Amino acid sequence: MKATGSSTERTIWNYFCCKGFSPAGVAGLMGNLYAESGLNPINLQNTYEKRLGLTDAEYTAAVDSGSYSNFVRDSAGYGLAQWTYWSRKEAMLNYARKTGASIGDLMMQLDFMFQELKGYVAVFQVLRTARTVKEASDIVLTKYERPANMSNAVKVKRAGFGQAYYDAYANTTATPEKEEITMSNSPLVTYTNITKNKTSPRNHAIDTITIHCIVGQWTAKQGCDYFATTDRECSANYVVGKDGSIGLSVDEADRSWCTSSRENDNRAITIEVASDTEHPYAVTDAAYAALIKLVADICKRNGIKKLVWSTNKTDRVNHANGCNMTVHRDYANKACPGQYLYDRHGAIAAAVNEILGPGTTQAPEAAPEPVQGFPATPFTVRVIIPDLNYRKGPGMSYAVRGQTGKGVFTITEVQDGWGKLKSGAGWIYLENPDYCTIQGVAAKPAEPDPADVLAQEIAGKVKASGLDPADVLNRVEKILGVA
Ligand SMILES: [Zn+2]
Q: Is pTM beyond 0.70 here?
């Protein structure tokens, strides 16, 4: 196998190098991804292409549109890492939905994978420090991908794939990302028409985002063309269209005339979003999703580590408490950005911050615990094959003690994808949906009978009184008319 030099290869290589993985670490990871998917982010496990009657592209489109709704639970390997287990597929689907990206989007999958890897603390550590492709490849195979076959032959093969990437790329890049401020424009732009309505250049570094509603369900082209031709002195850096199109009207290096405040527009990237023409000036889902992607991209390129919104105008206009989002209504008697977008500013900040990830200053030691993907114990699992082994401990290296047979079993503890049987007989492997189905939280012990509770209470009082219990009960029965 030879590295092809494709843009996908280089993108993946650069992505993980920039995230601080060592060259051997990146190569070891990539060799595994190649073995899983051929580095094709829309790759659907071949056996499922036949079973579902869908090609890679058809499956991807159907998941994106929602017409195929069994993505999480269909047990089909998908994407760069061939995510298969339901909780991991569910997490990836949620991530894609939140960022407005296709389930098959390369950058989305890389971002998701990086977040996921942070939860695999041992793997993450090795990928950052690995000096040999083999050590990185082995740990990705055995702790992250964990396919059924993890034999020595597989290890050698995957490390070989990784070595090819190492040989092709290790001496070409691999410098960690520098914290430099660049004034470029967004690569997400789909249409450009630069207006004369601007001040060039801006006089302040970009540290603020100002989102407006354009009061019209326009495309990005319509908005940019308007700013380029109108006699009114107005513009914006970007226009987001009703269809999710993104237009550039004023270069980021220049000040737009947008927010009725010279000071604000010198430091802000201004974005006009296509909206309805009346209250609450709602925007389409496509526009909203594109807006979040665009703002995240602006923040990334301009060194804005975190977006901070405040519902307090004083905070906003003074950039107090780290607040770096302002709105037009702070500077002029206007409804802009309209109630719809104003109410969503907190959600926009949260979605963008999710994409930006934790600050680079956060130590990897602070990485979250691995996502277990299992309900809280105890939960039940339905074993669907007759010959699932249970072992002495939570791992393949432990001795087989027997086979469960088909049926429903209660799991009282989970370790590393293995579940401890309530009977104490041993541990079964939970992460292969071809073997078993996780069912949910086991039934709690029945609530005590309320009559017993009341009887206990009465008995306690009778005892404490020192009176003859028989006499008291006799009288109680009379009162109740049951004597
Ligand atoms: Zn406005």
A: no
